[in-house]
Write a structure and sequence with these properties.
The chain is α+β, with helices and mostly antiparallel strands. 31% of the residues lie in helices and 28% in strands. The structure holds glycyl-adenosine-5'-phosphate.
Length: 448
Amino acid sequence: MGNAQNTVTMEKIVSLAKRRGFIFSSSEIYGGLSSAWDYGPLGSELKNRLQRYWWREMTQLHDNIVGMDAAIMMHPRVWEASGHVAGFSDKMVEDTVTNERYRWDHLTNEQQETRTSPNGNPLSEPRDFNLLFKTHLGPTADSGSTVYLRPETAQGSYVNFRNVVQTSRMKLPFGIAQVGKAFRNEIVTKNFIFRTCEFEQMEMQYFVKPGEDEKWFEHWKEKRMEYYRKLGIRPDHLRFHEHGPDELAHYAKTAFDIEYYYPFGWQELEGIHNRTDFDLSRHAEYSGKDLSYLEEETKERFVPYIVETAVGLTRTVLVVLCDAYEEEEVAEGDVRTVLRLHPQIAPVTVGVFPLVKKDGLAELARQIELDLRNEFATFYDQGGAIGRRYRRQDEIGTPYGVTIDYETKENGTVTVRFRDTMEQVRVPVEELANRIRSEIRNYKRVGA
Ligand code: GAP
């Protein structure tokens, strides 16, 4: 874990993302908005697939985790109860010469002690800056109409705790999973999509009996690390970081981050939090509703503890792009760019290519592609030399390429080319879908 290395740079990732239609600056034709990004044709596919992958892992593969989708706007009292109105802030300082803003906790000890900015100028006094986006509902902008854009999906699960227990008849321990947009007025947004003001989260709240919280915390900590390994993320680019007392969020008793080794160093990918009974107790207090739980077997009544797993979907997009990116020398002086994305999240699963357009090969290839399309995300490409077509797909992470050539007409076989090894095998057309299905199921990243 200590010797992770990066050959990829953020410049290369941003450039590939733009060039191939993964991610564009928001409102680019107006000069862009640094705190938000637009996901293009390939980026939205990748993000959707990642979301589906998480959803399956965190809901469908469990009997006791259900999904929900709460509104982004909630009753303003939610954010008073949750502690966000009073306490969701970062300390901010300003360079008194350039007016550049910095998060206090992002400065070095020396810069903090000498109150000097990274430019060497004097810094202002640190002051609290609340990250909540505030707006108004309805025609008048008075205090009675204040609403906030949610800074996390979690609260939507807490305020629906009773609804879910009653309608889904869930018994402890059980979880509620959500994916959705979140908004934070971040002091500094940088590193592309790493920290933005508008982002998407994938969070799971696991409600447990008090006293069992530490066991479940350990369980989810391990499970979540395992999830990234299964997704093919390089193990030496992942590590845990335990929050010290000065880092803990206002709601957390214990917290671990799963950190990733980005091109700009180790930073948070996901947070796993033991939120105790803080959230449900506060919502019970502020709403006046009973949010306790009656355990049938023991007839005990208590407020459940919550173990939370919280990750940014958009931040995961950055991680998978950085982790998958490789420049590989395939012959002397010939370097290919390849994204070694897991086949379950790659925007295109199968590229289909006729070797040449003539002699009926294009029509045959198109027919094969249409058949595969029922089950897989396909891309048909008949333009240019076959080697260049392969490279274009390597660069966007397409794991399998199917080529239709003269032999296909003779004996009904096609070539399947594997992105990672560039190996090719001949497969009968009628076995093609089966073969791809089994390759996806048994995928292991080379070298991981
Ligand atoms: N419900 C708990 C919670 O929101 P968090 O650690 O503040 O905890 C969880 O956020 C995850 O959401 C982070 O680990 C990160 O992946 C993502 N995230 C948080 N702020 C973000 C931002 N400004 N831009 C992109 N992703 C962000």
